[in-house]
């Protein structure tokens, strides 16, 4: 592991981490709390939808035959009922009859079509002086608007009982919530959220609300990872910062191993106080990998604890903030996605706004600004000095993956990119 | 407003709605709770960062001059101190001296550079049998690794006091949280979240957990809008469904008008029970627009209540679910964005996967599947029958805006698209 040649590639490391991911249990949650979660099973249509034919416009439901009228371009109907949404029609329309009807209301039997209100002319009984009609309203409609089935949503036309309403793995968004509500799913079976413990390590760390003494720094990784986990749909569990001592690490790591995932930051590089791998080994965590051919992020550690029928997947992230950010997005987020029942997405590529030269012999995760322009996804590298340079990285919203073997990248060339904030 | 020609275009309606949007107050929130919110002011760097020079690698900080050594390609240093992160160096390095140092630790005075541990060879005192040195360790380093300033992060190199750290309007993501933590912002000034009341109207609606009687349907819009609001960073306030009566509407609308935004669904088309505009007028809401040249979504209503130094912006959304969804994404989301201090994004365009014909004389919001492929954003229309067809719309993740004047759209042509779930 001393030379770059001996280290795993980013792809190898990602495959190993994904192979260790286990699917979360399924649980039923209230529909209103299901946004962002993934369905744990196919959901079937429980009943035909709509249950009865419904009007799609405000207007008149008219019978299949029209009564005689002198003006051949128009037909006149007697308005025999008013049906608002929520009511059940009281009669079946007969020839020459119409019912005033509102959007969403049940269409009466005998209706040929619904004619929008703006296409119908109501004949006031008084004005027209129609004799012998004892106050029955009539409506005059141009024959061109009498199209069979027009503006009627037939029963069963939206969904048939027993069909798949939504397939397993669907990530529930607003449109799915509407659909599930329409079909009466008050609770839905989903993969439960991953609980992920966050443990920052290092004697030099103070809480970000404190003023660090000389030689110390504020802990920026913990609140960052908390935010990344929440954005990824996981539940962060924030542990107290561990000191660089075996005792402190043992206590906090034992706490963290009770979660589905444990994210450590710091303590995994080659320094004399980087005790994390040792404590993990003692705790029964099996190392999956330690060290990758990537910049930043070289010291990445991944391990797994199997015990009592459950497992905890452990990520040792580097202490520098941009390294930690990059390793989370490259490795942890896809693993969380798989644990939650998602399919790990195919890599996305973007066109480089300008040429780029990769130095060194490791895969480079370079902060970039991603934007859409005229149907193209563009990536513009931000100027960035080191894995400690959070300020420059904050101008970015993603990163590009540059391979040193590739040589010079040209403007317009497609390069793999990763969005940092769940943009895709 | 009877003919399509008299209605506002989508662009006109959006401009009117945006003009009515007011900026939310600013408030200070805990950094950990700031994700997704926008900065209400520029934030300046409080202190130079880093405060002191820091080591970027585990290794040895070495003095600016080397002690005499017979091997000219290598220099040998006496290791006089060990500096772990969090400690303050106890001495200034003299010529020929080195300090063992860990990543993130403070670099001692007199250090020329930091040499990574894998580039240094420790000389065991016993093995080398160096005389008269009373157990002082020495480290041998190739001269090619003695590059001035190498692996040192100089004081003030990341950020200078008084510079802009993050500009007003920044939407706070994980990378910004890390940056703000590093600089000690325990609380940050942000635009407060918009509180948005949701009021579904209609005698036909039952809660989605209930079985509707004949003629009735489940309320799908309310949980959908709740999810859309949450995704847009607003706080949904769910009101009880209003009946189609003046009394019921008056009570619930008065409640809703206490929020920053009131979203109504149903009750705004031309039906006899569409009483919403009347009740809003009585309550002092000034109509901004009612009716747009769009499909679905034609009956859209927008109004504003100004009272006692505050305002409530009212959206009357159509009752059909896909209309409601589309009107939210097209009109409500940009308004929420502006109220929250965001800049309304320029329209995004995507390449059509296949040709498309627009029928009718209104702007069509067509559900599409958006995906990225080889640097291109692609839009594929889903087959979709009506604004009640939630099932087909659930296969989509956005919509394309088709203009009837444009005529036939060809495959590959760029068309304006809107993502439904905050994807961009």
Q: Could you explain the architecture of this structure?
A:
Two copies of one chain form a homodimer. Chain A is built from eight helices and 26 strands. The first copy, chain A, has 424 residues and is of the alpha/beta class. In chain A, the strands form seven sheets. Chain A has a six-stranded mixed beta sheet with strand order 7-4-6-5-9-8. The longest helix of chain A is centred in the C-terminal third of the chain and has 19 residues, at 321-339.
Task: Please give a handful of descriptors for the protein shown.
homodimer, 424 residues, Molybdenum Cofactor Biosythetic Enzyme, Chain A, Molybdopterin biosynthesis moea protein, domain 2, Molybdopterin biosynthesis moeA protein, domain 3, 4 domains, 6-stranded mixed β-sheet, 8 helices, 26 strands, 30% strand, elongated
Describe the largest sheet of chain A: 6 strands, mixed
Helix content of chain A: 10-25%
Low-pLDDT regions of chain A: none
Number of helices of chain A: 8
CATH class of the largest domain in chain A: Alpha Beta
Strand tally of chain A = 26
Quaternary class: homodimer
Number of domains of chain A: 4
CATH-level-4 superfamily name of the largest domain in chain A: MoaB/Mog-like domain
Strand order of the largest sheet of chain A: 7-4-6-5-9-8
SS strand fraction of chain A? 25-35%
Span between termini of chain A: 34 Å
Briefly note the CATH topology name of the largest domain in chain A.
Answer: Molybdenum Cofactor Biosythetic Enzyme, Chain A
Shape by Cα distribution of chain A: elongated
Question: What is the level-2 CATH architecture name of the largest domain in chain A?
Answer: 3-Layer(aba) Sandwich
Main interface: chain pair and counts: A-B, 109 and 109 residues
Average pLDDT for all residues of chain A = 92
């Amino acid at each position: 592991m001393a030379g770059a040649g001996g280290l795993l590639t980013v792809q190898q490391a990602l495959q190993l981490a994904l192979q260790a991911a286990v699917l979360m249990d399924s649980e039923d949650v209230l529909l209103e709390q299901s946004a962002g979660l993934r369905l744990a099973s196919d959901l079937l249509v429980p009943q035909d939808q709509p249950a009865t034919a419904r009007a799609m416009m405000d207007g008149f439901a008219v019978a299949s035959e029209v009564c005689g009228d002198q003006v051949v371009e128009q037909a006149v109907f007697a308005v025999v009922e008013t049906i608002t949404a929520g009511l059940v029609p009281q009669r079946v329309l007969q020839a020459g009859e119409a019912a005033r009807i509102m959007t969403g209301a049940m269409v009466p039997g005998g209706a040929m079509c619904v004619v929008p209100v703006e296409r119908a002319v109501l004949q006031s009984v008084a004005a027209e002086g129609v004799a012998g009609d004892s106050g029955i309203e009539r409506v005059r409609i141009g024959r061109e608007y009498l199209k069979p089935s027009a503006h009627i949503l037939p029963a069963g036309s939206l969904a048939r009982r027993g069909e798949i309403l939504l397939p397993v793995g669907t990530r529930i968004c607003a449109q799915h919530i509407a659909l599930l509500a329409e079909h009466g799913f008050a609770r839905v079976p989903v993969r439960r959220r991953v609980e992920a413990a966050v443990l920052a390590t290092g004697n030099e760390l103070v809480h970000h609300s404190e003023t660090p003494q000389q030689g110390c720094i504020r802990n920026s990784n913990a609140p960052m990872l908390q935010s990344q986990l929440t954005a990824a749909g996981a539940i962060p569990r924030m542990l107290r910062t561990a000191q660089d001592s075996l005792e402190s690490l043992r206590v906090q790591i034992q706490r963290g191993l009770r979660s589905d995932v444990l994210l450590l930051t710091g303590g995994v590089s080659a320094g004399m106080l980087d005790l994390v791998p040792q404590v993990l080994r003692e705790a029964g965590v099996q190392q999956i990998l330690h060290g990758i051919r990537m910049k930043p992020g070289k010291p990445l550690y991944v391990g797994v604890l199997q015990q009592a029928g459950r497992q905890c997947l452990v990520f040792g992230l580097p202490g520098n903030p941009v390294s930690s950010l990059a390793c989370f997005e490259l490795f942890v987020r896809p693993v969380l996605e798989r644990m939650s029942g998602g399919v790990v997405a195919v890599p996305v590529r973007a066109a480089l706004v300008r040429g780029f030269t990769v130095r060194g012999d490791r895969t480079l995760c370079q902060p970039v600004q991603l934007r859409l322009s005229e149907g193209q996804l563009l990536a513009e590298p931000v100027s960035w000095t080191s894995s400690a340079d959070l300020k420059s990285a904050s101008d970015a919203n993603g990163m590009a993956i540059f391979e040193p073997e590739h040589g010079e990248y040209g403007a317009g060339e497609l390069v793999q990119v990763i969005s940092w904030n769940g943009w895709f």
